[in-house]
Design a protein that fits this description.
The protein is an all-alpha fold. The protein has one domain. 82% of the residues lie in helices and 2% in strands. Strands 1-2 form a two-stranded antiparallel sheet. Helix 1 runs antiparallel to helix 9. The longest helix has 41 residues. It is elongated and about 110 Å long. The N and C termini lie close together (12 Å).
């Protein structure tokens, strides 16, 4: 058994497997702009299909992850409703008090803000439930999660888009490179045994 030839074939096979997978991963992203090679044009898969990817990703996010209904339910959860009621009430009372003419303030007594707050607090739940229902029914009619996501992806520079993809999939892409190394080494080993049996 020629140990040097065995080691060389395993190393070369591993190197070829690793480098071809690394090159294939790189060519998912590069070249960004098409390069004319006569018979065909060379361009990275992601830059070439960025528009289709943006549409598909936006569709998946809207249908599976973040529908308008899910967004609305989160915004108008019980915890958020209470916070919204308090914030809007405080802001409303403050603005109304500031806008009151001096004569009206005189009729309301020493603390007009407290009296206005008392009136609103008395009917706050009924007022806000109506408002929340109207928002839930009509508030998001003109908002499209699909359009928001697609526009955001379209506005990204491709280098930013590449960073996002690498950020999401860096471990998986590294694993693909290692698999290439492993498979290439196995192929090198098989080649060695084939040459031994043929010789």
């Amino acid at each position: 058994m020629d140990i040097v030839r065995l080691i060389l074939l395993v190393l070369i096979g591993g190197l070829i497997g690793w480098s071809t997978n690394k090159l294939a991963i790189k060519m998912l992203f590069r070249p960004v702009n098409p390069i004319n090679l006569g018979l065909f044009k060379l361009q990275g898969v992601f830059p070439k299909r960025k528009d289709k990817m943006a549409k598909s990703l936006a569709e998946i996010i809207e249908k599976e992850l973040l529908s308008k209904e899910a967004l609305m339910d989160k915004i108008l959860s019980d915890e958020n409703k209470n916070q919204l009621k308090d914030t809007v009430t405080n802001s409303f009372v403050k603005r109304v008090t500031e806008m009151l003419p001096p004569m009206a303030k005189m009729f309301l007594g020493e603390n007009p803000e407290a009296k206005i707050r008392k009136i609103i607090d008395k009917n706050k739940d009924k007022i806000f439930e109506g408002i929340f229902e109207d928002i839930k029914k009509d508030g998001f009619n003109n908002i499209s999660v699909y359009e928001l996501v697609k526009d955001r992806i379209d506005s990204l520079d491709f280098v930013e888009f590449e960073k996002i993809i690498f950020g999401l999939m860096s471990k998986e892409l590294r694993f693909v490179e290692i698999i290439g190394l492993f498979l290439g080494s196995i192929i090198g080993l098989i080649q060695y045994f084939i040459t031994v049996f043929i010789a």
